[in-house]
Amino acid sequence: MTVDTWLLAAAGTHLDGAVAAAxxxxxxxTVVAVGPRTLAEAAAAAAPDEVRWVETPDGEPAEAWAAAVxxxxxxxxxxxxxxxxxxxxxxxxxxxxxxxxxxxxSRVLALRAEDDALVVDRVSLGGAVVxxxxxxxxxxxxxxxxxxxxPAAPPAPVTAWTPAAAPAAVQVKREPAxxxxxGVRDAARVVSVGRGLRSKDDxxxxxxxxxxxxxxxxxxxxxxxxxxxVPKERYVGRSGQHIAPRLxxxxxxxxxxxxxxGVRDAKVVAAVNSDPAAPIFRTADYGVVGDxxxxxxxxxxxxxAPPA
Length: 308
Ligand SMILES: Cc1cc2nc3c(=O)[nH]c(=O)nc-3n(C[C@H](O)[C@H](O)[C@H](O)COP(=O)(O)OP(=O)(O)OC[C@H]3O[C@@H](n4cnc5c(N)ncnc54)[C@H](O)[C@@H]3O)c2cc1C
Hints:
Elements: E1 3-9, H1 15-23, E2 26-35, H2 37-45, E3 50-55, H3 66-76, E4 80-83, H4 87-100, E5 103-114, E6 117-124, E7 129-135, E8 139-143, E9 158-160, H5 181-186, E10 189-193, H6 203-213, E11 216-219, H7 221-225, E12 247-251, H8 257-260, E13 268-273, H9 280-283, E14 286-289, H10 292-302
Parallel strand pairs: 1-2, 1-4, 2-3, 3-9, 4-8, 5-8, 10-11, 10-12, 12-13, 13-14
Antiparallel strand pairs: 5-6, 6-7
This protein binds flavin-adenine dinucleotide.
């Protein structure tokens, strides 16, 4: 069985992996790119069969088009519709799942056609389990990000596309988010903590270093998302803040690619980690193998500031 697939994208990241996943089903791959021209070009570079580009005027959120795009996809009735993980793409996917009557499955790692069923591997139980689902009807799947290499095939043609229904009327006004995230985004120096920190109270160990360096506090995703020790607006990485400080100092952070993606544009990356084999030492410009509870007070002393 070959299966035609539509991919709904409102952001240009990880489309190579998403198109590669669609290709495993053997049918035609159509991307609907809702956003600026650069998004349509990123989609085309992932080498689907065609890109339908819904242009959004400056600042108009892709979600304004969710119902209109969903209705068109419903009318085309593909067996499979996919999205990457960003929130706006997922909103488009959900809007298409309704008219399709599709099973809506998130955190999908891989999919394949077996006999008449679509077989889906997806992450479950907070990452502890990989579940395999067999879906006999239409499927709408949110694909987990993957780092697939860019395709060798030439870019797909891009066609400007206007769904029959108008977009929802949405007015946008932008202000900095609460939690002073702008501080992390714009700071010349950022000191981030990871799961090497043992408790929220131990942020007190880091505070004198922030003061001595005039740095903003950042963190890895689990410290904000799972533990709630630092406001979510301050976590750095693929799904968090992308920052470009002159100095990024990572304390007790392993340096997984999803984290390091957020500091790709930092001028200098330094790391303190007790594990000499921690991945962060492969990319950091400077590294200290040591216990952050010893190294941080030593740095504060060296900078001539009072310890905690
Ligand atoms: C789709 C997706 C998106 C993601 N997006 C992001 C993202 O945007 N940002 C992000 O950060 N993560 C993201 N992640 C999670 C990422 O993969 C890692 O799980 C996360 O970055 C790990 O956080 P950590 O380094 O704090 O924790 P760990 O990986 O647990 O590392 C803790 C480190 O601390 C060290 N350590 C322990 N004790 C000490 C000590 N006393 N002194 C010094 N070092 C010590 C350990 O050796 C270890 O290296 C994402 C994951 C997925 C699947």
